[in-house]
Write a structure and sequence with these properties.
The chain has nine helices and 14 strands. The protein is globular and about 65 Å long.
């Protein structure tokens, strides 16, 4: 197997990033100059997302162990980072995405809890999942199956149910829900997103439906049926009405002048 494109550059780039702004070490609670392994780097970033205290220390130790012993989890984390860096120009390079991209943090927390779940440490996986749900306002169940090269843009408000399946190269925007419909409540009760599909902000996909490869779910759409590969599902567009009765709030300059 050839080395991952980020394997040799991520640590040096992170050290350079922190050297350019020394306050980052205080904000993130670690010094990359003292990290010599990618497993510890990922663990340190995850731990930095939690409030200072025993939970942060425990997550740091557990995540370091997981990413060191589970090469598949480490590979998935690197692949997600590579994909996010390519699709999202806002944070900058891979080191910037690792530290500043909220959606990537949510995925990284899933890679940790998924590895714990597969190792039979169910209660620990769920406990750590709960910690990151509170910290990130995202809920991704460790039972869900998520492929490589996934991008969660912004990341806030995403819910991915227990039996959801997300294949490689899928992109999801903020506020997406992959939930059940409370009718089809079998072993596979959540959606399946096939390779390369895209789901826009605020979309809700319910039940054991399949979104085909390369399909697009537009922002705000509510999907309860299968979507053929390459097709687009849209939500109702806003409708223009007559002029509204609300005249707007008092402007700042008027507030500064005070009452007449």
């Amino acid at each position: 197997m050839s080395p991952h494109p980020l394997a040799s550059t991520l640590l040096p780039d992170t050290r350079a990033l922190f050297a350019g702004e020394p306050t980052l070490s205080e904000l993130f609670g670690y010094d990359p100059a003292q990290s010599c392994e990618l497993s510890h780097l990922f663990a340190a970033v995850l731990a930095s997302l939690l409030p200072e205290g025993r939970a942060r220390s425990q997550v740091l130790a557990i995540a370091s162990e997981v990413f060191e012993r589970d090469p598949e989890a480490l590979e998935a984390a690197l692949n997600d980072l590579l994909a996010t860096t390519a699709r999202d120009a806002a944070p900058g390079g891979a080191a910037e995405v690792l530290h500043f991209a909220h959606g990537y943090h949510a995925l990284l927390s899933y890679r940790l809890t998924r590895s714990l779940w597969l190792a039979g440490r169910d209660s620990l996986a769920l406990a750590i999942k709960s910690q990151f749900t509170r910290a990130l306002s995202v809920e991704i169940w460790p039972q869900a199956q998520i492929g490589h090269g996934v991008w969660l843009d912004h990341g806030l408000g995403i819910v991915i149910g227990q039996t959801a399946v997300i294949e490689d190269d899928v992109s999801l925007w903020h506020g997406v829900t992959l939930g059940s419909n409370f009718v089809d409540m079998g072993a596979a009760r959540h959606p399946v997103l096939r390779k390369g599909s895209v789901v826009g902000a605020g979309a809700v996909i319910l039940g054991p439906v399949e979104v085909g490869a390369g399909a697009t779910i537009a922002a705000g759409a509510i999907v309860t049926c299968d979507v053929p590969p390459g097709h687009v599902m849209t939500a109702p567009r806003a409708t223009e009405r007559a002029a509204g009765r609300f005249g707007g709030f008092v402007a700042l300059q008027a507030l500064k002048r005070g009452p007449k």
